[in-house]
Amino acid sequence: MTTTSEPTLTHRERVRAAGLSGDYWYPAMWSKDLQKGDVKEVVFWKQSIAVFRDEEGRVQAIEDRCPHRNIKLSLGEVKGCGVQCPYHGWVFNGEGRCTDIPHEVRTKNKPDIRVGNFPVAEKYGIVWIFPGDRSKATLSALPQLDPIDAGWTTIPVDFVNKCHHSMIVENVCDFYHEFLHRDYRPFHKAKLLSVEATKDAIEVSYETTLGGGPFVKYFADTGSVNLSQIKLWYQYPFQRSDIDGKYLHWLFLRPIDERTTHVFYLFTFKSFKLPFTNFTLPKALIAPLIKLTSKIYVLPVLAQDNWIMAEEQLGHDVHGGRPVYEFNPFVVKAQQLTLRKWEEYQASLAQRLQNKRGSPTVVETLLEA
Ligand code: FES
Ligand SMILES: [Fe+2]
């Protein structure tokens, strides 16, 4: 007798199919891109969320689905403190409650119509959303970026990468790929010093020559910044790095689906030097210089990474089940962390759904016989 069975996924295939736990804060967009009266669709792992700034300036986030005919509310318009669906004009406030129906309603009692809503916050020029269990959404769990609070010069950059989020973390923390950047040389001859895993993070450090490319070496503050070592973290669910406590970056990822990830980088710098001298640049000159550096150095380097990660995704789509060789222990540990966190989140989600069963919060049908 023959039996059919599901093909077994390899460990790597399971990693590349995993989302990120909803029980963390994720970047929706830059604050400047959400003006009063704007409503936009933000996707977190295939779930569409309507994020809007109401007419009083408050950011709100609700399920992006009108419970009348399943139209996306993000296609509508902000009206007062809510969003108006473009079809029959129902209005939903930031709590997800329907506050107005501008047509005849043939029921005896005022219907209680609701959609889900999500905690939101604004910090570091980013609108944050919390897509998971709202009881875990304390503001203290937002990432703390002390140098940005202290006013260091910061460059924000975002991309929609055509690849799985785990490939991005692996790319940024794997310093064995200097060949890809051989024209720009952001790092050179990296030697892995250590990889340490804790419950929710993996730290990796390298000895290397940083910022040695044809341009950046004139600006890097070699007098006061040690450019021979870097530490990087996969600090679930984001990634960050630190060069001598003076050049830092954070990389916040919002997974859209298995092949698409919106990433938000914040690069921050304590000091730069005047080219061809050892003088530190005055603060007023750092911002324009960093803009220039970003244009001719940082963005081209990241474009190479973005291109190769999209190619890695295409390669995975075809060959994902085949064995690969991996020499960087960070990559192995990062994949274990991604998968474990995803499985834990799936289990907690199942538990939450079980607890909810029998207590529906959304009225499905209101039409009276
Ligand atoms: S579909 Fe939204 S109001 Fe009818
Ligand atoms: Fe790179």
Written account of the structure:
The chain has 369 residues and is of the alpha+beta class. It has two domains: 20-136, 3-layer Sandwich (Rieske Iron-sulfur Protein), CATH 2.102.10.10; 143-343, Naphthalene 1,2-dioxygenase Alpha Subunit, Chain A, domain 1, CATH 3.90.380. It has five helices and 17 strands. The protein has helices at residues 11-17, 146-149, 165-173, 283-319, 329-356, and strands at residues 26-30, 39-44, 47-53, 59-63, 77-79, 82-84, 91-93, 98-100, 120-123, 126-129, 153-161, 187-197, 201-210, 229-235, 238-243, 247-257, 260-269. A seven-stranded antiparallel β-sheet has the order 11-17-16-15-14-13-12. Helix 3 (165-173) packs across helix 4 and helix 3 (165-173) runs antiparallel to helix 5. The longest helix is centred in the last third of the chain and has 37 residues, at 283-319. The termini are far apart. The structure holds FE2/S2 (inorganic) cluster and fe (ii) ion (FE2). Residues 66, 68-69, 71, 85, 87-88, 90 line the site of FE2/S2 (inorganic) cluster.
Total helices: the number is 5
CATH fold-type name of the largest domain: Naphthalene 1,2-dioxygenase Alpha Subunit, Chain A, domain 1
Q: What CATH architecture of the largest domain would you give?
A: Alpha-Beta Complex
Fraction of residues in helix: 10-25%
Report strand %: 25-35%
Small molecules in complex: FE2/S2 (inorganic) cluster, fe (ii) ion
What is the mean predicted local confidence, pLDDT? Answer: 90
> What's the number of extended β-strand segments?
17
Structural class: alpha+beta
Main beta sheet, described?
7 strands, antiparallel
CATH superfamily of the largest domain: Naphthalene 1,2-dioxygenase Alpha Subunit, Chain A, domain 1
Trace the largest sheet across and list its strands.
Answer: 11-17-16-15-14-13-12
Q: How would the global form be characterised? A: globular
- How many domains? 2
- SSE string: HEEEEEEEEEEHEHEEEEEEHH
Rounded radius of gyration (Å): 24 Å
Unreliable spans are 359-369
Q: Give the termini separation.
A: 53 Å
